């Protein structure tokens, strides 16, 4: 156990340095610096509008920073396109689920794998279907992922017909189809009841262990974050106001004032 903790604390995988993003006069992310270590489950919390999703958008190349640096395995990634960042090993889910509603569960995963795997070979560039052997491998992998997220019984269901919790799980499976090293989850428990939240929490821990993942989790449900995360960063009005282990963050006066005091 001690060894595991040491390992988590010694190997940086993602490093934000003075990361800043303005939207007009608003500073959505303001001089934010932190390091996420390999195999950590790292929580990102803060009130609505604190800048959490903006931080994910910066990390995945959807938007560019106004200033600052972002290092992944020691390399600057802020200039990369979203698909380049994804193929380097950073995958995400979205706060507002973004599945292809008319496609089945398995098709949603296969599409993600095709884009990922073929992005640097001719078939992908030309829009050609992959070779049958590759296709078979993709299908097998997609079935494994659906089993992992507990959706084996729903492979042929259209995404839009799945219950909400299953859609969230399917989105996680789709992100995992990119075979990431870091998985960014933007409010994966939103809209779930307590039982579903508890089961999701177990599931996140399970995939982190089984797939050797580093996970960054944005979540408003404080007990879930506190129970699951190794460390937690707290944002408020774009600024990092606390960073540390759950117990330390829970009792930090600035956090209590900005966030935990609200509604708890
Ligand atoms: N594309 C954009 N254009 C203008 N303002 C934006 C844009 N994206 C985010 N913002 C603003 O930046 C701030 C941070 O937004 P962000 O979505 O990152 O917050 P959040 O912490 O994810 O909040 P929530 O918990 O509600 O999801 C907000 O004031 C938001 O209105
Ligand atoms: Mg958000």
Automatic annotation (TrEMBL):
<feature type="domain" description="ABC transporter">
    <location>
        <begin position="14"/>
        <end position="262"/>
    </location>
</feature>
<dbReference type="GO" id="GO:0016887">
    <property type="term" value="F:ATP hydrolysis activity"/>
</dbReference>
<dbReference type="InterPro" id="IPR003439">
    <property type="entry name" value="ABC_transporter-like_ATP-bd"/>
</dbReference>
<keyword id="KW-0813">Transport</keyword>
<dbReference type="InterPro" id="IPR003593">
    <property type="entry name" value="AAA+_ATPase"/>
</dbReference>
<dbReference type="Pfam" id="PF00005">
    <property type="entry name" value="ABC_tran"/>
</dbReference>
<keyword id="KW-0547">Nucleotide-binding</keyword>
<dbReference type="GO" id="GO:0005524">
    <property type="term" value="F:ATP binding"/>
</dbReference>
<keyword id="KW-0067">ATP-binding</keyword>
<dbReference type="InterPro" id="IPR032823">
    <property type="entry name" value="BCA_ABC_TP_C"/>
</dbReference>
<dbReference type="InterPro" id="IPR027417">
    <property type="entry name" value="P-loop_NTPase"/>
</dbReference>
<dbReference type="InterPro" id="IPR051120">
    <property type="entry name" value="ABC_AA/LPS_Transport"/>
</dbReference>
<dbReference type="GO" id="GO:0005886">
    <property type="term" value="C:plasma membrane"/>
</dbReference>
<dbReference type="Pfam" id="PF12399">
    <property type="entry name" value="BCA_ABC_TP_C"/>
</dbReference>
<protein>
    <submittedName>
        <fullName>High-affinity branched-chain amino acid ABC transporter ATP-binding protein LivG</fullName>
    </submittedName>
</protein>
């Amino acid at each position: 156990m001690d060894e595991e903790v040491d390992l988590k604390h010694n190997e940086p995988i993602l490093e934000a340095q003075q990361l800043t993003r303005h939207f007009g006069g608003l500073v959505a992310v303001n001089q934010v610096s932190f390091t996420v270590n390999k195999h950590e489950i790292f929580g990102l919390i803060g009130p609505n509008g604190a800048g959490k999703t903006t931080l994910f958008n910066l990390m995945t190349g959807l938007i560019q920073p106004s200033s600052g640096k972002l290092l992944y395995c020691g390399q600057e990634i802020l200039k990369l396109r979203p698909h380049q960042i994804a193929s380097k090993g950073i995958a995400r889910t979205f706060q507002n689920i973004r599945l292809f509603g008319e496609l089945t569960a398995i098709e949603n995963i296969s599409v993600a794998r095709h884009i990922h795997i073929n992005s640097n070979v001719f078939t992908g560039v030309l829009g050609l279907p992959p070779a049958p052997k590759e296709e078979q491998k993709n299908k097998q992998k997609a079935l494994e992922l659906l089993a992992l997220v507990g959706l084996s019984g729903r492979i042929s269901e259209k995404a839009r017909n799945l219950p909400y919790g299953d859609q969230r799980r399917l989105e996680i499976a789709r992100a995992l189809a990119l075979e990431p090293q870091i998985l960014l989850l933007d409010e994966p428990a939103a809209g779930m009841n307590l039982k579903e939240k508890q089961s999701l929490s177990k599931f996140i821990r399970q995939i982190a262990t089984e797939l050797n993942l580093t996970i960054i989790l944005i979540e408003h449900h404080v007990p879930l974050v506190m129970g699951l995360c190794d460390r937690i960063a707290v944002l408020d009005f774009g600024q990092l106001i606390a960073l540390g282990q759950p117990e330390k963050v829970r009792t930090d006066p600035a956090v209590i004032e900005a966030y935990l005091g609200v509604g708890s």
